[in-house]
Specification:
This protein is α/β, with parallel strands linked by helices. Helices cover 33% and strands 14% of the residues. The longest helix has 17 residues.
């Protein structure tokens, strides 16, 4: 499939061929959903922890006689029933990640790219470069292109001035080609690929 190439000045800079096996698939919501769940679960820290009664610091002396008080039988103040005691079945550090086959992950990325192409939310940029790292100047250029919420993907490395100019713009993310992922693609309205990014993706899926 053909796609128009534009510059940061919103001028046409030719066309580019997008491979149908990467950008021309019929998007499947179930695969995209599985991949987003996989990514969000994988990035959870899983470090929350509370103390049970064995970890509470305190005396182990029995707080009252077993019989004769007319009250319930208790052992120590560290029991879970008392304020300051241990927690019952509280959370412990654990791994929240779920498994997903490598082929499904690769397929999900293809479907995410195809979803953007099908909904006309894919823009191919000639280059993502700036002469100076000026955020105001880049904001004006992006506004001219109609990019209020966008993921911009460049080649193997990001151009330094462009990266510095874009990092303070709300709603705009910038990634190198190897960092492209399904969640970041779907969370932004537009997907912007440079020519270098398109070439990198073609090589990646060969």
């Amino acid at each position: 499939m053909k796609a128009d190439v534009t510059t940061l000045e919103a001028k046409k800079a030719g066309t580019v061929d997008l491979p149908d096996d990467v950008f021309g698939l019929e998007p499947r919501a179930d695969i995209l959903h599985r991949m987003v769940r996989y990514q969000l679960a994988k990035r959870r820290a899983g470090t929350v922890s509370v103390k049970d009664r064995s970890q509470i610091t305190g005396s182990t002396v029995k707080i009252m006689n077993q019989k004769g008080s007319g009250r319930a039988r208790h052992s120590t103040r560290k029991a879970n029933l008392f304020r300051g005691g241990g927690k019952t079945f509280g959370p412990k550090p654990r791994d929240h990640s779920i498994s997903l086959p490598k082929k499904v992950r690769a397929l999900a990325l293809r479907h995410a790219l195809s979803a953007k192409a099908k909904s006309n939310e894919l823009i191919v940029l000639e280059k993502a470069e700036m002469k100076e790292p000026k955020t105001g100047g880049l904001k004006k250029k992006l506004k001219k292109l109609g990019l209020a919420s966008a993921l911009i993907v460049d080649g193997a490395e990001l151009e330094k001035n462009f990266s510095l100019a874009a990092r303070n713009i709300v709603g705009v993310d910038v990634l190198p080609a190897q960092g492209i992922n399904v969640y970041d693609i779907l969370r932004r309205e537009k997907l912007v690929l440079t020519r270098a990014a398109v070439e990198a993706l073609e090589a990646r899926f060969k």
